[in-house]
Amino acid sequence: MPKVLVSDKLSETAVRVFKERGVDVDYEPTLGKDKEKLLSVIGDYDGLAVRSATKAMAPVIEAGKKLKVIGRAGIGVDNIDIPAATAAGVVVMNTPYGNAITTAEHAIAMMFSMVRLIPQANASTHQGKWEKSAFMGTEVYGKTLGVIGCGNIGSIVADRAVGLKMRVVAYDPFLTEERAIKLGVEKADLDTLLSRADIVTVHTPLTDQTRNILSRNNLSKLKKGAFVINCARGGLLDEEALKDMLDEGHIAGAALDVFETEPATDHPLFGNPKVVATPHLGASTKEAQENVAIQIAEQMADYLVRGAVSNSLNSPSVTAEEAPRLKPFIALAEKLGAFAGQLTRTGLKKIEVIYEGDISELNLKPLTASAVAGVLKPMLSEVNIVNAPVIARERGVSIAETVRDDADAYDSIIRLKITSETQTRTVSGTLFGGAPRIVEIKGVDMEASFSPHMLYTTNEDKPGFIGALGRALGEAGMNIGTFNLGREDSGGGAIALVAVDEPISDDLLEKVRALPHVTQATALAF
Ligand SMILES: NC(=O)C1=CN([C@@H]2O[C@H](COP(=O)(O)OP(=O)(O)OC[C@H]3O[C@@H](n4cnc5c(N)ncnc54)[C@H](O)[C@@H]3O)[C@@H](O)[C@H]2O)C=CC1
Ligand SMILES: O=C(O)C(=O)COP(=O)(O)O
């Protein structure tokens, strides 16, 4: 049974969902904060479920020798090293919608708290002071809200702001004009947004492109007296510049849910009467936490138990319905790849996967990735469906996918065409009774199933070869399971694919190579 570690404070409903779906689970909601402990235990787990407190960076991924999936019960994945996970073949998934409404509501709550000074007034009133004139606020009606990043959360914030009769200007390179019109927002470039906004709210992910998007320079482009909200990520905003501009009075107030360093227990902005702060509470409602915990547990269990992939940031999607249909084809693609990979000795240049017949209706991305993984596996140790396309690309191997509707004699065929520095090789296969079967090698028809140990030979089609090969195997005490032959023309090139019961020794291979008419002999393992 696969085993998952929950290392952050997810709703405990996740534990029930994992168990119901056949996954063993250790619930250790504070373990993720202890880096050393996490490193020492992660090797036991197939999956790691986190929120934002656990830093699933390269050392953790490297120590997770059995790790297959990291699940983020939430949206932001800046606490997960996705390139390192991809390189290690670990699927990374998140729950892109589960806490979006809650986070947008927090941004709106922060906006009102900030412009009406509610936390400050609350503290003062609880102290028995009645400072009615100390807390003069600002009305949002008719004001302009600048939304930087108008994706799931930004769109919900915009929608709520439109409901409050605010004008909304949005900057997002991926926001289409149609979507902007539908949302009732005006699309603008960043400079225009900054010059027009009374209140700016940022909702982009933290990436190399967005880091410091609210830089000192950009903050200085705001109108005097503007307000700033950050409920997305620390690091999007220059905190030092914000402090200076609050002190100078250029910025009237700020509402911050997130900080460059978290947990933030000591910060130059703490105690500033113009700042409203919360400890990364954007996603913290009962509803959102139930949503994301259930969803991530379902997704991770579906992957670990059934091979379904959803909401992955580094692997092609496979629905739970597709997974069982794809499974035998994934095995076929990988075995064909393994066959070709074991025969490719010189620089690999291109892998082309051709799908013919009914199979072309299926989700082909995972099949192509499996074929590529199969090809690369004999050359590299840790390669799988997740990292294979990236590894191939890094090594300058191009990947092509071709689809043809008709498939000659078979309902579905996968043809693999491998181009190396010296030659192009093809191998094709189909499913027979659900099991992978080779039907063509180098243009020669063949009928062979895969076995753990196989001998592949090419030879000139001359009398006596089959007997000589059988004798050589017999003399080595090698039991033959199946013996499959194919040839181009009588007397031309021929192929033998022999399933044997044990691994083929180098010694035996040399003997086979020395037989008359043999042009090549290779031991294959599947
Ligand atoms: N405070 C909290 O507790 C929470 C914070 N978040 C943060 O909110 C972020 C956004 O979440 P979603 O809206 O769900 O993500 P999303 O992916 O739906 O939207 C992000 C938007 O930002 C845009 N974007 C990317 N680069 C940009 C750039 N350079 N300039 C302008 N726009 C850019 C994208 O085109 C996209 O539309 C998350 O990545 C996460 O960091 C999310 C949930 C809770
Ligand atoms: O989903 C996100 O991106 C969040 O920032 C929420 O973080 P949390 O799960 O509350 O640690």
From TrEMBL:
Residues 454-516 form the ACT domain. It catalyses: (R)-2-hydroxyglutarate + NAD(+) = 2-oxoglutarate + NADH + H(+); (2R)-3-phosphoglycerate + NAD(+) = 3-phosphooxypyruvate + NADH + H(+). Gene3D superfamilies: 3.30.70.260, D-3-phosphoglycerate dehydrogenase, domain 3, NAD(P)-binding Rossmann-like Domain. Residues 325-442 form the D-3-phosphoglycerate dehydrogenase ASB domain. Its EC number is 1.1.1.95. Keywords: Amino-acid biosynthesis, NAD, Oxidoreductase, Serine biosynthesis. It holds the Pfam family 2-Hacid_dh_C. One of its GO terms (biological process) is L-serine biosynthetic process. Catalyzes the reversible oxidation of 3-phospho-D-glycerate to 3-phosphonooxypyruvate, the first step of the phosphorylated L-serine biosynthesis pathway. Also catalyzes the reversible oxidation of 2-hydroxyglutarate to 2-oxoglutarate. This is D-3-phosphoglycerate dehydrogenase. It comes from Hyphococcus luteus. The lineage of its organism: Bacteria, Pseudomonadati, Pseudomonadota, Alphaproteobacteria, Parvularculales.
